[in-house]
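To the wet lab folks,

You asked to see what we're planning to order before we commit. Fair enough. Below is the target structure as C-alpha cells, and below that is the sequence we designed to fit it. If anything looks off to you, flag it before the synthesis order goes out.
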C-alpha cells in the first residue's frame, strides 16, 4: 500500500484548507481492508462530507472501456450510463494518457460528454479527474464535481485527489483484478455453454429455442444407452430426424438404421414386412423374404406412427421387444436379432389405451424414455431460421438465387398456425421458391393457406384483379387442394394413409388427386 509523506499532508493542509482528518480517515479505511466496493463508496462519502463535492465516481478499466465501480451523488441508472471508451471524453483521455484534468466550468467545455446525464443545466460546477496508477499502469480514474466559489482552489483539490488516488491504488487494483477475473469467468462460462450447446445440438436439426434445447439434452442423455425411446409429437415435427440423431450419437452409429412407417404399410402385409416370410407362406410369396428387423440387426429399428398398428401387430411387436426373437411368416424357426427400438407417434396413446385400441403393456415397453417434440407454433423463434435454411436448400435444388424474404412474408410465416409443422413449412418454402419471379419471396408467393383474404384472391387465380371477386368453386378447390397436399405431406405421399388421416376413403382421395392435378410423388 502506498503512503504519503509529511510534506504531502502539510501541503494539503496549507493549500487546500482541508483537515488532516480526511486523509487519516481514508488511510484507516484502506488499512481495514474492507470489501473493495464498500471501501470506494466510503472514500467518496468522506469527500462528499468533508469537501462538499456534488458527485464523485471511481471508474475501472474493462478492456478498452471505463465502467463506474462506485459513485456518490448519482442514481443507479445514471451510474449505469457512465461508460466511456478509453480516449473518449475527459475521463477517457485521463485514462489514456495518465494525466489529470481540471474543467473549471463543465457547462462551457465542449469536450465534456456528461454521459451520466446528471449535470444538465448546471453552471459554476467544476470537474476534476485523476488517473489511478498501479505498477505504472492506469487501471482507472477518480473524478469529482464540485461547486466553484470565489475562494475555491481547484489546483489544491486536484493535488488532494492525486494523493487519494496514490493511497488507494492498491485497493483499486484489487477491484480491477476482481472485475477482470469475473469477466474472464463470465466469458469462459459463455464459451463453454456455447460449446456444450453446439455439442448437444445434432447437425441435422435446426432450432435454438429453449424447448428445442431440452430435446437436444434428452438426445444427448439417451444416445449412449440401449434404452427404448418413444418420440412424441404432431405429424411433421421431425420425429425421424430425432431418431437418426440418437442413432448417430450411439455406439450403433456405423450399423443400419431401418425406418418403418407403420401407417403406410397395408394391414395384411405389415407382419411380412417386419419379420419376413418363407417361400409359399401365402399367396404371392414366391420367394423367401428377409424382414426389416433382420435388416436392422446390430443397428436401430425406427417404428414411425406405431400408434397405427392393429392390436394383432401390437401383440407381435410386444413379444419381439421383450425377447428380441421372432418367426418369419410361414416359418417354424425362431430367430434372434440385436436391435435398438426407437418408436414414434403423433397419436394420443393414453387415450387409445383407455378406449382399448392400444395395449397398455406395449405402451410401457415403448415409453421407457419419452422425448416430446414441440409443435412449430410453439417455437416461433425458429420459424425464420428454418425458413432461411429451406430457402437455401431449394435455391440449390431448383437452381434459383433468391436472396431473402420480404417483411410481409416473414410476418405471414410467423403468424400462421402451421398444422403440418416443419414439414408443412418446408413444402411452403419450396412452393414459394418455385412461385417467385425475382430474388425476394413476397407474401403473395406463399401458398394460399397463408394468405390474407385480399392476397388470397391473387394467389387463387392470377387473372383476377384486386377489384374482382373470386368464384366460389375456385376458392373451395384451392382450399381442398391444400388440405389433401398437407395430408400427403404428413403421410409421405401415401394416398391410402392420407385418406385414413382425413377419415375418408382411398377412392375419394384418388378421385380428388386426379381432379385437382396433384402429384403424390412430390411428397414422398
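Sequence we intend to order:
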Amino acid at each position: 500500500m502506498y503512503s504519503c509523506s509529511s510534506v504531502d499532508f502539510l501541503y494539503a493542509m496549507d493549500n487546500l484548507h482541508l483537515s488532516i482528518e480526511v486523509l487519516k480517515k481514508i488511510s484507516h479505511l484502506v488499512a481495514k481492508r474492507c470489501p473493495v466496493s464498500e471501501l470506494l463508496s466510503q472514500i467518496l462519502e468522506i469527500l462528499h462530507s468533508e469537501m462538499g463535492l456534488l458527485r464523485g465516481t471511481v471508474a475501472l478499466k474493462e478492456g478498452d472501456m471505463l465502467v463506474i465501480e462506485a459513485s456518490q451523488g448519482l442514481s443507479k441508472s445514471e451510474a449505469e450510463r457512465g461508460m466511456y471508451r478509453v480516449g473518449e471524453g475527459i475521463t477517457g483521455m485521463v485514462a489514456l494518457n495518465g494525466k489529470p484534468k481540471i474543467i473549471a466550468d463543465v457547462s462551457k467545455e465542449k469536450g465534456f460528454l456528461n454521459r451520466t446525464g446528471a449535470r444538465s443545466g448546471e453552471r459554476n460546477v467544476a470537474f476534476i479527474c485523476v488517473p489511478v496508477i498501479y505498477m505504472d499502469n492506469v487501471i482507472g480514474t477518480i473524478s469529482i464535481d464540485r461547486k466553484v466559489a470565489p475562494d475555491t482552489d481547484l489546483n489544491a483539490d486536484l493535488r488532494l485527489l492525486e494523493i487519494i488516488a496514490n493511497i488507494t491504488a492498491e485497493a483499486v487494483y484489487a477491484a480491477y483484478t476482481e472485475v477482470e477475473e469475473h469477466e474472464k469467468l463470465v466469458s469462459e462460462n459463455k464459451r463453454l455453454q456455447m460449446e456444450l450447446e453446439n455439442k448437444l445440438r445434432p447437425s441435422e436439426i435446426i432450432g435454438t429455442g429453449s424447448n428445442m434445447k431440452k430435446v437436444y439434452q434428452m438426445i444427448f442423455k439417451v444416445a449412449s444407452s440401449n434404452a427404448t425411446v418413444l418420440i412424441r409429437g404432431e405429424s411433421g415435427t421431425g420425429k425421424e430426424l430425432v431418431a437418426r440423431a440418437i442413432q448417430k450419437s450411439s455406439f450403433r452409429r456405423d450399423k443400419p438404421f431401418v425406418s418403418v412407417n407403420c401407417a403406410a404399410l397395408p394391414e395384411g402385409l405389415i407382419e411380412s414386412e417386419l419379420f419376413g416370410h418363407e417361400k409359399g407362406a401365402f399367396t404371392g410369396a414366391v420367394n423367401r423374404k428377409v424382414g426389416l428387423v433382420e435388416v436392422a440387426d446390430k443397428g436401430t429399428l425406427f417404428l414411425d406412427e406405431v400408434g397405427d398398428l392393429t392390436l394383432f401387430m401390437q401383440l407381435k411387436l410386444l413379444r419381439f421387444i421383450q425377447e428380441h426373437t421372432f418367426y418369419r411368416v410361414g416359418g417354424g424357426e425362431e430367430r434372434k436379432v440385436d436391435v435398438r427400438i426407437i418408436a414414434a407417434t403423433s397419436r394420443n396413446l393414453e387415450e387409445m389405451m383407455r378406449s382399448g385400441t392400444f395395449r397398455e403393456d406395449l405402451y410401457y415397453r415403448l415409453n421407457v424414455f419419452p422425448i416430446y417434440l414441440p409443435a412449430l407454433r410453439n417455437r416461433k423463434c425458429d420459424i425464420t431460421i428454418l425458413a432461411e435454411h429451406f430457402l437455401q436448400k431449394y435455391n440449390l435444388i431448383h437452381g434459383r438465387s433468391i436472396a431473402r424474404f420480404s417483411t410481409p412474408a416473414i410476418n405471414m410465416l410467423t403468424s400462421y398456425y402451421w398444422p403440418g409443422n416443419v414439414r408443412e413449412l418446408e413444402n411452403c418454402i419450396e412452393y414459394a421458391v418455385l412461385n417467385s419471379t425475382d430474388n425476394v419471396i413476397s407474401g403473395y408467393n406463399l401458398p394460399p393457406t397463408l394468405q390474407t383474404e385480399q392476397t388470397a384472391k391473387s394467389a387463387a387465380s392470377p387473372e383476377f384483379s384486386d377489384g374482382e371477386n373470386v368464384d366460389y368453386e375456385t376458392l373451395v378447390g384451392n382450399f381442398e387442394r391444400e388440405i389433401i397436399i398437407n395430408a400427403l405431406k404428413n403421410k409421405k405421399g401415401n394416398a391410402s394413409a392420407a385418406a385414413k388421416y382425413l377419415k375418408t376413403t382411398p377412392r375419394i382421395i384418388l378421385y380428388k388427386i386426379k381432379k385437382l392435378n396433384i402429384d403424390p410423388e412430390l411428397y414422398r
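Structural context that might help your review: The chain has a mean pLDDT of 81. The CA atoms of residues 232 and 372 lie 5 Å apart.

Thanks,
Computational group
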